[in-house]
Amino acid sequence: MIISNKNIPDKIFFDLIKNIKSKKELSEIDDSLVSSEMENVISHDKKLLDFLSSASDMKKIEKSARYKETIKKTRAILRKSVGVFIRMDKTQDFSQLLQKHESTRERLQIYPELYKRIFHITGNPKSILDLGCGLNPLSYKYLKAKPIYYCVDISSNIIEIVNSFFKKNKIKGQAEIMNLREIKNHRLNLPKAGICFMFKLLDSLEIEKGHKLAEKLVKEVPSKWFAVSFSTNTLSGRRMNHPYRGWIEQMCRRLGYFYEILEFENEIFYLIQK
Ligand SMILES: C[S@@+](CC[C@H](N)C(=O)[O-])C[C@H]1O[C@@H](n2cnc3c(N)ncnc32)[C@H](O)[C@@H]1O
After folding, report:
1. C or N terminus of the chain, fewer CB within 10 Å?
2. Is the CB of 81 within 6 Å of ligand 1?
3. Helices vs strands, H then E, count in the chain
4. Each residue's pLDDT tens digit, 97-120
């Protein structure tokens, strides 16, 4: 495996992937996603890169602090991204699943009003692109205009559920596994859609300080409208005193984008027009 022009022996690289995935909650993540986050970790640490590329004695390597550090850092990123896995058995009702994921459960009461308010401003889209979709596509019945629904998520488990939901309900939709953090390194191949949803995505996507990734996404995703949401509750469940995200308002002003805020009890939505 070549990383930043250095060769890390395949045995070491694939052993690392196996080791990272040995934790139950990370075991179902696609190898390619583990591999790309691990490459990021290794390429940003020159000493680690030098160590792994010059190493040969596997037993010694596995005991080393640097090897353990690689595993720890990559796991931390993956945990933040993937969150909770949802298991679905064949008899499970899709509408019950909306209750299982915190974001969609909280939104169940507001979906009709939310979509009404969004599309009152943007007009009914012919297509939607839902980034870091989670189980949100399962709210399709609340979309009056029945758009084509494209969506991506890092979790293969979620993508499997969403694709079977589309199939069962004969919805024109397509769900794909994608690591959106890869936008740091190259352009992502995303379809053009009337509106792009990023519901409660950015807080789990942006691990580094700052909001470069969010800005890149809004600039590069080929949609005219964006609906970007954030929780208005703190981790302990209390309502934030100031739920607004000043940085996104500043970004829109700087880039000359129109924005409007839609406020709900647990969630705040920025509707952005490029
Ligand atoms: C808080 S959940 C929100 C889910 C959904 N958008 C909603 O609001 O109902 C964040 C979602 O982003 C996804 N996610 C996190 N990091 C990601 C990444 N790097 N690439 C793609 N999806 C990611 C997670 O798997 C999870 O489904």
Report:
1. C
2. yes
3. 12, 9
4. 888 777 788 899 999 999 999 999
